[in-house]
Each structure stands twice: as C-alpha cells, then as structure tokens.
Amino acid sequence: GIVPREPSVLFTLGRVHKRLGDPDSALAALNGALDLAPSSADAAAIKAAIDRLHAADDAEEEGV
C-alpha cells in the first residue's frame, strides 16, 4: 500500500485506526509519524497518543 511520508497524515491515520478499534494499526501509524518527526513540535502530541494507546491496552488486559 501507499505509505504517507508526512507525520501529520500518519498521526491522523493513527487516530482513525484507534477509533475503528484497531490499536495495532494505530500504533504502527503513530510510530511512523514519530520516526518522521522525532524532534518536531508535534512529537510530544504523538508520544502522548502512543502513551494513551498503551494505557488503553493495559486497562483492557486488567479487565477494566
């Protein structure tokens, strides 16, 4: 498939995957965004989204 080379596109794609209930694809897109812009102003927002995704996974595993 086509892989976007723009961090903002990958960030949005990650959010869409999360809303669709596909955390693995969401994480892949968010990590891709972070790889493209590791020191940008958006990096903090990308890292926060990744942390929220991991927190949701942890809560799901605990049965919360």
TrEMBL record:
Gene3D superfamilies: Tetratricopeptide repeat domain (1.25.40.10). This is Uncharacterized protein. Pfam families: TPR_14. Keywords: TPR repeat. SUPFAM superfamilies: TPR-like (SSF48452). TPR repeats lie at residues 7-40.
